[in-house]
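anyone seen this seq b4? input:
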Amino acid sequence: MKSGKLRTRRKGPEGKLTANLDEAWRKIMHARKGCEYIKCGGTWGLQGAHIVSRAYRATRWDLDNGLCLCREHHIFFTFHPVEFEEFLVGYIGEEYLAWLKQRAKNYRRWKAESREDKLKELRYHLEEVIKLKKPPVWATYRMAGEKKRSHLA
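predicted toks r here
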């Protein structure tokens, strides 16, 4: 390991597939058209932010595990996890956050075929967003402030 270098990216088809999945997920998060931090609503420097760290492969490309945040709030919440959790509890609810964290703990090793299927799914959602020119239905429940989730009832 070279000094100063913590990790290297995977090369080859696996690395490219992972990069494509990350990019598709990011574009879908951007479709939300504004910072979801209630006090901001900014529309510049938008970034896809994971609710539960992307290190958890089980939820890395899960559309329920993301928010669109401006660069400023993404950086702030990255270095202030207590404030981020307080924001999330108020925004998506404690029950939903606990459900998402539990899903993340379910270890998942993505096989190439599963990742290819996930990429097709994300690209389908991305096409839907582009075609409709508005956030998809699954994104609007958060924007409307609805905290109740059908799959938690």
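The chain is about 50% helix and 5% strand. The helical segments are 12-30, 71-79, 81-92, 94-105, 112-132, 137-143. kinda curious what u guys think
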